[in-house]
Amino acid sequence: MTDSPFGECTYKISSGITLKVPKIILNSVRTRTVTLYLKYCEETQNADILSERTYMRLLEAIEPNVRKSMKGLDNFAADGSQAFDNLKSVLHVSLDSEVPDHCGRFGLSSEENSFCSKCTHTHHLSCNDCEALTTTLKLIEDAADSITYTNQEQQDDTKYIIVQGIKTIIEWKKHIVRSVNQDRARGKVLDTLQPNEALIERDWAMKFLPLQYRESQSNWFAKRGLSWHVSVITFQEKEGKNSLTVLHIFDTAATQDAVTSNAILKDLLHHVNSTNNNVDTLYLRSDNAGCYHSSYGILSVTALNDNPYNIKVNRMDFSDPQGGKSICDRKAAHVKACIRRYVNEGNNVITAIEFKSAVEKTMKKC
């Protein structure tokens, strides 16, 4: 099951409560999905489960898109898709693996002692699939050296394409290893979150283009978008984890820099305290944008620790570059769907005030 980054559906339960969930894509048929979930609950000793028929009804109500096979594709599209599936299948990352290609601790360590973690095991095993990938790439390089070219320019172009292609594949594999490690840090924070702690995930959403119920062609061109920032605060309560989504919308041209981002963070401290005044420790997570991980963005957090709420930032985590998809994107999808529904009712959303009004009138809880 995969979350879609856009779209949502509404599900009304028997108690009258309306739930909004993002669109999902099923990677298998519904019965198989339910069977796998029940198997997962059994393995994790989760006794709080429903009947198989109830889960089937939930999937029918959500109306997910089901992944299907396709026929008649051109060879390049089919081979490219299969290549990605094959590369995903050979990547099995863990912190302690005797296969060097699978060992995250070994792969993420630097030559510098400050950024190196020693493994407590030896790397004496090998993976056939990983070795096959390395061998294949080496054979391609050797083949490029053994053939005869018509001219030097053709030889240089061919070798350049091969070298860049191999480099891109290796960088892509590194990116996935780093992303797995960074996601593990987020999961560890959520698993050990205490009632006096909160996790803030933040991200600048794509600029919102103004919408009108009846929009002329002249107004449709050359739009200037509204900057808006999404923050999701996760609390640990007695009944379980609860989240609060906070949006900051700017009517004027807002610079998405460290100053603005830290000003938003300062305002978030007020929302944290007003929602749960027991919180005194914060964990921050964001993507790798410069407004978050710059020296000014990080050092200014120490000044924010001096606040009237006695809330201290204990830790800051960042996702790997180009790997920053998070819960903020899913919440943004909810908001954009609600605004489109609000516009379809005959309203305009052009300014930040109208943006705020649309969210308040169409979303009971985010």
How would you explain this protein's 3D organization?
By secondary structure, the chain is of the alpha/beta class. The chain folds into three domains: 2-66, no CATH class; 89-178, no CATH class; 193-362, Nucleotidyltransferase, domain 5 (2-Layer Sandwich), CATH 3.30.420. Helices cover 46% and strands 18% of the residues. The radius of gyration is 25 Å and the shape is globular.
Main beta-sheet strand count, sense and barrel state: 5 strands, mixed
Widest beta sheet: strand line-up = 6-5-4-7-8
Order of helices and strands: EEHHEHHHHEHEEHEHHEHH
Q: Give the CA-CA distance, first to last residue.
A: 22 Å
Proper CATH architecture of the largest domain: 2-Layer Sandwich
Mean pLDDT: 83
* Shape designation: globular
Helix content: 40-55%
What count of domains describes the coordinates? 3
Assess the beta-strand content as a share of residues.
15-25%
Kindly identify the CATH topology of the largest domain.
Nucleotidyltransferase, domain 5
Instruction: Supply the number of helical segments.
Output: 12
**Sequence stretches where pLDDT stays below 50 over 5 or more residues:** 69-73
Q: Over the alpha carbons, how many angstroms does the gyration radius reach?
A: 25 Å
Assign the structural class, choosing from mainly alpha, mainly beta, alpha/beta, alpha+beta, or little secondary structure.
alpha/beta
Count of strand segments: 8
Assign the CATH class of the largest domain: Alpha Beta
